Amino acid sequence: MDQLVRGLSTQNTQKIDMLFTQTLTNYLYSVHPNHVFGMDIVSLDIQRSRDHGIPSYTEFRKYCRLKAIRSVKDLSKIMVEGATDKLLKQYKHWRDIELLVGALFEKHEDDSMVGPTMRCIIREQFIRTRMADRYFYDLPNIFNEYQLTEIRKVTLARIFCDNSNNVTMMQEKVFLIPTMADLQLCNSQLIPKININHWSEMVDTFQK
């Protein structure tokens, strides 16, 4: 677990695009010791989207209230360089492009690892997950204001520190690659701990 935590917090993630390792495109679910053959994750995901009736890429852009694609020129503006020619060799019309394929070929937003369509999907999923969870932590009558303050102090850095065996240092912002100057001791005040005293009946009674 410690090695996994160190890797997650110090290594660059790969770019989100249409480049997939052969492990996923040729040898997925392979049980043969020499990995002679396997399945293709991209083909599987495309087939799954068809089975479930997922709208095409251009239709999903409408759902996300993004600019409609009315020409090859429009498509070229939002796709990475060279993607439009590849897509139109595989699809008769831009209206036929699968959601997964189109979304992964999109140019990334300036402040995002994904394009506008994928960002729309991720945002919508987080909103729906929160709204559908009747135990979500900040809903009324679940925690009091003191407990909420403690919960909101906790960062992923604290979670990494508390749930590993021998990880003693961590940067405050674990999604950013650290330098030596960024690393803090896990017991540092810069990586806040939760004060569980706010969950004791005595403290709750006093606060009320």
Automatic annotation (TrEMBL):
Pfam families: An_peroxidase. It comes from the Eukaryota. One of its GO terms (molecular function) is heme binding. Keywords: Oxidoreductase, Peroxidase. Coiled coil: none annotated. InterPro entries: Haem_peroxidase_animal, Haem_peroxidase_sf, Haem_peroxidase_sf_animal. GO terms for biological process: response to oxidative stress. PROSITE patterns: PEROXIDASE_3. This is Peroxidase. It comes from Acyrthosiphon pisum.
